Amino acid sequence: MDQVIEQFQFERVLSHDPRTKLVYILGRIQDQHAIVSFEKARYSDSELPQLTTRTQRPLDDANENNIYGWGMANVRLDAADTHIKTIYPATELHIRKYEHQQRRMIVETPALYEQITYPYIKSVPAERIQWVINILNGTSEADRVIYRQGNIKDSKDKDEEEKKEEEEEDEFVILPDMKWDGTKESLYWVAIAMRDDILSLRSLNRTHLDLLKKIRDTAYRLAKERYDMDKDLLRLFIHYQPSYYHFHVHITAISFADAPGVVAGQAHLLDTVIDNIELYNDYYQRATLPFTIGERHPLFLAYQQQESSITTSHSS
């Protein structure tokens, strides 16, 4: 990672969110693209008593009005104050993902899923989730995993009986999400299933209830043991569409109100998912599932192409 930062040659800003203090920058290292993100970290509790004494004076652009005052200044703190992430080499899909773009709402019926979404999911190269496989088989981030049950399960090249036995094991890992800053108030973990046959929310049925409930109960237990957090302080949810097609569940603190992807049109609460499946085994195969997606995303472009084809056929 140090080498990526050192060799990075700036090209342009992909996006800059002043609310979250997060910027994504595109550049090159030799002949390949790289993306680096910078996000201002929150103050640690130990730094709070020192903020005024560490503030450089005089303040820039200082203003006063009655009892109120405001301005800009550098606060000299010893701790690192910026979260940095790198993607190298970065593909065109990475660039599209992090580049500022208008988001659109797709109202996906079961028929549209079969016609457009499912073929797109199956077209995604397997190497796109190699980083997930590395976590599951323990070759990467092993020291960050806070819970591990079982070994990676590959549904390929298995006879039906062996495959069925493995699917009943419902194993997974839990580890901190890359976006977590390590504080209790912004807790952000992710649970990743060992099995590789659950493409998305659409795949879920009653055969997956044990897995879903084990993830929920384990997350509750770990949060209580590690941070004395009761279960009603946690939010567990599944993204649709997910950012990668290997089944995972997001685990965040309720106090992390603006956690990425907690909005309607993306997050489906785990308890609701469990309840829906208990009511109807094929709920997620029958339901219409609206989702938001960037207008440069290949899946959105596939929907646009389908819409254009329908319009053309109707006009001819």
From TrEMBL:
Q: Which UniProt keywords apply?
A: Cytoplasm, Phosphoprotein
**Any idea which positions bind substrate?**
131, 141, 177, 179, 239-250
Superkingdom classification of source: Eukaryota
Keyword Phosphoprotein in the entry? The reply is: yes
The keyword Membrane is assigned to this record: no
Q: Name one GO molecular function term.
A: RNA 7-methylguanosine cap binding
Concerning InterPro entries, the annotation shows: DcpS/DCS2 (IPR008594), Histidine_triad_CS (IPR019808), HIT-like_sf (IPR036265), Scavenger_mRNA_decap_enz_N (IPR011145)
Instruction: Write out the GO cellular component annotations.
Output: nucleus; P-body
Instruction: List locations, semicolon-separated.
Output: Cytoplasm
- Pfam families of this UniProt entry? DcpS, DcpS_C
Which BP terms from GO are recorded?
A: deadenylation-dependent decapping of nuclear-transcribed mRNA
Question: Which residues act catalytically here?
Answer: 248 (nucleophile)
The family line of this record is: Belongs to the HIT family.
Output this protein's name: HIT-like domain-containing protein
